[in-house]
Amino acid sequence: MKILTNLTFLALLIGACSQPPSDQSAMVEASFPERAKDMVIYEVNVRQYTPEGTFNGFIDHLPRLEELGVDILWVMPIQPIGEEKRKGGLGSYYSIKDYTAINPEFGSMEDFKRLVDEAHKKDMLVILDWVANHTAWDHPWMEKDGYHTKDSMGNVISPVPDWSDVADLNYENMDMQNEMIDALQYWVEEADIDGYRCDVAGFVPMEFWNRAKDSLDVVKDVFMLAEWDEPQMHEDAFHMTYGWGLHHYMNGVAKGEKNVDSLISFINKDLDRYPSDAFRMNFTTNHDENSWNGTVFERFGDGHKAYAVFVFTVQGMPLIYSGQEAGLDERLAFFEKDTIEWGDVAFQEFYASLVDLKHDNPALYNGEFGGEPNFMDTGNPMVIAYERTKDNNQVTVVINLSGDNQSISLPESMLFTDVFSEGDVSSSITEMQPYQYFVGTNTVSNE
Fold it and tell me: Span 293-313, mean pLDDT?
């Protein structure tokens, strides 16, 4: 009986092994960058987000952000802020006093873990802003010999003169590098975050970033964003870089200092410079632009929506900054408490429609997962038109980037239904109103 039972078991085992394998690939989650191919990123300024300025206060906004459709929450630095040489009353997020602690103004570690957990329940990733280039002057590493950069007189220095509240780190010191990597791993292991936005990443040697990414991959597949605009950042460590160049060109067009031809030329050169799998983060605003260079209303005027449409459709991953969906019309104080006025969140529906468009059409996906823009001549240096095609999916965009009426000449074969007005757009349209935009989706034949 025992022999028969064993033979029966063996036969069943052989039979099971001979069955065609189930489709396990459908159950395995894609890794980065593919996992982020259609994602939109949202920057969270915890201090200014709510009157409380806490993690728990921000958690209350997660259902609305879920409706907005954002996929990645980039949380500005959450560690304690240095007191020595502090700027303003509350100091800069980017003056880190302790890499593995929580700023008590924001709450506790348990509060932050709950934020991450609640975001994950809503299918949002959480990446943490990381300041690897410098520390606060009262960081414990100041007591460790060789951890910071010194001048010829043996004095620790700031990275640049204006950043007087922080001390530059010495990346020739491998002990410091190893402690930094340990701190990066800590937040992934302890709080289950999904990656990092790395502050002034180009100030830190690429060899370090590559080591750090390899060490993080042992813990978890993480998404890495570099605050830098150079192709070499994509060699290993980073999936996405800042589109600073495109942002500055947009500002130039809005001021009337540049035109569409120069903008198109820049985009084509940028596409040639970067590898095809590089994600580029594009934006009309972020915490730096808002606080130091002006709101979208200051820089783009009544055209802020037109330029947002451009950012969401031309290439790369679009960014939404805290309060942008509410029409943030003030420069938030950087070193003080300055709560965002949410009001009726006037532009929530507008941005949600752009996010939906991004998610729904593979032509608008990020990097090599989407289609490159094919620019068309409109006969007008202030009106931009382009198509993006991926497989049989196509998006067509026409935008007047100026505050004046513009005459245009569209290709004779052009015909699509505008997703915003649901009206037909064709070559018969010869005039566009100030900052008017058309966006259409088509299915095209592969033949």
Answer: 98
| Boundaries of every domain in the chain | 30-371, 383-443
> Distance (Å, rounded) from C-alpha 90 to C-alpha 97?
13
DSSP string, 268-282: HHHHHHS-TT-EEEE
Say yes or no: do domains 30-371 and 383-443 share a fold: no
128 to each of 76, 171, 198, 251, how far by Cα in Å? 6, 21, 8, 28
Distances (CA, A) of 289 to 61, 245, 285, 339, 382: 23, 13, 6, 17, 24
Q: Which tens digit of pLDDT belongs to each residue from 18-40?
A: 444 444 444 567 999 999 999 99
Q: Is the pLDDT of residue 10 over 50?
A: no
pTM of the predicted protein model: 0.93
Give pLDDT tens digits for 253-281: 999 999 999 999 999 999 999 999 999 99
**30-371 adopts what CATH topology?**
TIM Barrel (3.20.20)
Question: Is 383-443 a CATH 2.60.40.1180 domain?
Answer: yes
**Which pLDDT band holds residue 4 (cuts at 50, 70, 90)?**
very low
Spatial CB neighbours of 54, under 8 Å, sequence gap ≥ 6: 46, 105, 106, 107, 111
